[in-house]
Amino acid sequence: MTQGAEQVAGAAVPRIPRGVRLHDDKVRGKMVLLAPERVIDLDQTGLAIVQQIDGQRSMSEIIDHLAGLYNASTEQISGDVKSYISGLLDRRILEVSA
Fold it and tell me: For residue 8, what pLDDT is reported?
């Protein structure tokens, strides 16, 4: 299990740290996360997840919101959200607080 996977419990609150921002990249024609010396391309799923990260909502709240938005079960959404956020945590693109 990766370090990020250990941090994505339901009560964890992910946030985009200082120095990282969501950006509309006109050259690539898509939304990206800009981090120091890195650009993370966001597909539709990644963008939907990242747009819910406000530093206030917990993982459970994000998952519930996306499940409602896409008319899917929380079980169906949960794995994708946790996996995606875990990957961003491992790359130090996100932080979490308990």
Answer: 73
The parent domain of residue 31 ranges over 3-97
* Angle, alpha carbons 35-80-41 (nearest 5°): 30
Q: Residue 63 sits in a domain of what CATH number?
A: 1.10.10.1150
Domain count, the chain: 1
Q: Is the separation of the CB atoms in 10 and 75 below 8 Å?
A: no
Q: Positive or negative CA dihedral for 80, 84, 90, 92? A: negative
Cα dihedral: 28, 29, 35, 41 (round 10): -80
- What is the b/e burial string over 14-29, where b = at least 16 CB atoms within 10 angstroms of the residue's CB? bebeeebeeeeeeeee
What are the tens digits of pLDDT across the range 17-69? 999 999 999 998 999 999 999 999 999 999 999 999 999 999 999 999 999 99
Distance in angstroms (rounded) separating the CA atoms of residues 63 and 38: 27
